[in-house]
Amino acid sequence: MMKEKVLSMEENNYTKVIGLRGYYFIKSYEKPKKNKVKIRKILEETVRKVFRNRDCSVVVFFEETEKEILITPDSPTEEIVKYLGKSFLPK
After folding, report:
1. Per residue in 69-86, pLDDT tens?
2. Sign of dihedral through CA atoms 78, 84, 86, 87?
3. Which domain of life is it from (predicted)?
């Protein structure tokens, strides 16, 4: 059962990209037929809904410093509020 949870977490990895002009969320998809990785912008509401249901993790990426921080639903509340906002706190 734990293995299934880990696999489902891998499927729902989102990235929050923070730059000088603001931020946006992305998700990468693998296209098996073409062996390509496709990246799409995702609405914040979608990421929030999945994160609050404890079904994903979010990597916060800072464009200027290229620093990455992994945030999961089990992360400390202070980190979730600091990097994602109060609305992302799990139920």
Report:
1. 999 999 999 999 999 999
2. negative
3. Bacteria
